[in-house]
């Protein structure tokens, strides 16, 4: 487990270019299993979760070629299905959340898909019902053996149908779409998730020959085709990283330009930051954040305390609430942070309270933050990163706190942020990586 040693309290200045989106990349990589032809993907982030999935695909028999720093090509011609029964697969497959999305494509192409219970953040219950209810509706047989913790689906043929998803699960929707693209007949998915990750997956599948309509909505229609061909695809910039950089800029009183953000894909993220008092300008496709000494949280129109809450897209993504929370600690005003989807994602507020932040954790889903208006900075401390987004929120807190902070378990941050220490050091941060 590695550690970051951070000397905080310095303002940063310069440009940051966001990496490719982690959650899109995980879907797109799984979709390469749908064809034996070559698929080239640009803007793949060099992060732990993505690298683990690429390794898993390669062990499954996909031939992987890194063509340049962030461009890879994949050819899933000689898939070794026996690998799915190996102990290596049991350990690798369970080490990240994204691996669950190999099931849909394997089921579509080979009539079977197995996966150990996947990993990912420990941020509360993370059920997979939507995935397997969907596969079953397409005609697959489902088996879960709690003893060995393995999920299996098998089908001699998948048949399109109408389905109302149990919930608008992001990875669940991606998995069912990938299973349905080569099913017989038409599948209609209602209550589908419609994050840009899903929209991008659909665009990629269409460029491979799939027939999908309704992209960007919660009602998708998928007309099954016989086979899919190769394609070239570019992953969007990571909107969660962009949001993290906005929070970082404001908390550290820095002047930062975030380059090439694909602004029209950010949904309500910029407006949510504006309601927190953040000033930003769109310059071309860059977001410019001026140095701000203070920022004031808006109230609702009736004067009541602002709530920042997550919701399925086009609502605010749950993956940025930890950043909103840390940002609120130094704002003028108060806000209620309401993490509706996950039940254990706010416990890291303990650390911020240790650092001097005024937060009341009302229950596992809600925290009220009373901003300090930059009158009393956060104090440096030693902490452990519990999950990817709390990790980055703590990193932002440490960079704003005058003095030396330590963050242990930074693998959690490396899971989703490419060389974050080097990129932030290049614009004036002081972060030392200590490998244990
Ligand atoms: C690899 C990947 O892509 N991970 C993302 C994906 O995870 P993942 O696809 O695993 O998350 P889901 O969308 O399935 O659900 C996340 C949580 O929200 C709850 N839920 C979901 C939908 C809904 O309408 N109501 C509801 O309460 C679920 O019960 C679950 O507890 O989507 C999450 C929700 O945006 C993000 O936090 C994760 O970063
Ligand atoms: C929760 C997240 O990731 P995962 O679903 O991979 O655990 C996240 O990216 O914030």
Automatic annotation (TrEMBL):
SUPFAM superfamilies reported in the protein's UniProt record: EPT/RTPC-like
Binding site for UDP-N-acetyl-alpha-D-glucosamine: 97, 319, 341
Biological process (GO), any one: cell wall organization
Active site: 121 (proton donor)
Residues that hold phosphoenolpyruvate according to the record: 22-23
Pathway(s) of this molecule: Cell wall biogenesis; peptidoglycan biosynthesis
EC top class, as a word: transferase
Localization per Swiss-Prot or TrEMBL: Cytoplasm
Domain of life from the UniProt record: Bacteria
Coiled-coil zones: none
Catalytic activity: phosphoenolpyruvate + UDP-N-acetyl-alpha-D-glucosamine = UDP-N-acetyl-3-O-(1-carboxyvinyl)-alpha-D-glucosamine + phosphate
EC identifiers of the protein: 2.5.1.7
GO MF annotations, alphabetized: UDP-N-acetylglucosamine 1-carboxyvinyltransferase activity
Function: Cell wall formation. Adds enolpyruvyl to UDP-N-acetylglucosamine.
PANTHER family in alphabetical order: UDP-N-ACETYLGLUCOSAMINE 1-CARBOXYVINYLTRANSFERASE
Stated name of the protein: UDP-N-acetylglucosamine 1-carboxyvinyltransferase
């Amino acid at each position: 487990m590695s550690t970051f040693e951070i000397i905080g309290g310095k303002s940063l200045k310069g440009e940051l270019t966001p990496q490719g989106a982690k959650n899109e990349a995980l879907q797109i990589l799984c979709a390469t299993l749908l064809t034996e032809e070559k698929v080239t993907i640009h803007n793949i982030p060099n992060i732990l979760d993505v690298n683990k999935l690429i390794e898993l695909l390669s062990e499954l028999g996909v031939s992987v070629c890194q063509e340049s720093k962030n461009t890879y090509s994949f050819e899933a011609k000689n898939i070794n299905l026996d690998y799915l029964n190996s102990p290596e697969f049991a350990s690798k497959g369970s080490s990240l959340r994204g691996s669950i999305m190999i099931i849909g494509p394997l089921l579509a192409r080979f009539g079977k898909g197995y996966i150990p219970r996947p990993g990912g953040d420990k941020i509360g219950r993370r059920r997979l019902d939507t995935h397997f209810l969907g596969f079953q509706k397409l005609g697959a047989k489902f088996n879960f053996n709690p003893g060995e913790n393995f999920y299996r689906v098998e089908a001699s043929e998948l048949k399109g149908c109408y389905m109302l998803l149990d919930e608008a699960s992001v990875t669940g929707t991606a998995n069912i779409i990938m299973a349905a693209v080569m099913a017989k007949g038409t599948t209609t998915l209602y209550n589908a998730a419609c994050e840009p990750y899903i929209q991008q997956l659909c665009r990629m599948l269409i460029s491979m020959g799939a027939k999908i309509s309704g992209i960007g909505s919660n009602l998708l229609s998928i007309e099954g085709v016989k086979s899919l061909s190769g394609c070239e695809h570019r992953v969007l910039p990571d909107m969660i990283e962009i949001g993290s950089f906005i929070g970082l800029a404001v908390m550290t009183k820095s002047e930062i330009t975030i380059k090439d953000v694909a602004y029209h894909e950010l949904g309500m993220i910029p407006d949510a930051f504006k309601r927190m008092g953040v000033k930003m300008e769109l310059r071309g496709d860059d977001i410019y954040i001026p140095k701000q000494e203070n920022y004031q949280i808006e109230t609702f129109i009736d004067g009541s305390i602002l709530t920042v809450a997550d919701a399925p897209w086009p609502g605010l993504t749950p993956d940025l609430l930890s950043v909103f929370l840390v940002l609120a600690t130094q704002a003028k005003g108060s806000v209620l942070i309401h993490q509706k989807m996950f039940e254990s994602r706010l416990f890291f507020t303990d650390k911020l309270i240790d650092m001097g932040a005024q937060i009341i954790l009302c229950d596992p889903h809600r925290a009220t933050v009373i901003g300090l208006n930059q009158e009393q900075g956060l104090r440096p401390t030693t902490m452990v990163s519990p999950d990817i987004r709390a990790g980055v929120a703590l990193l932002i807190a440490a960079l704003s706190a005058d003095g030396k902070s330590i963050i242990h378990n930074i693998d959690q941050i490396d899971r989703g942020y490419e060389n974050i220490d080097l990129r932030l050091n290049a614009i004036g941060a002081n972060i030392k990586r200590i490998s244990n």
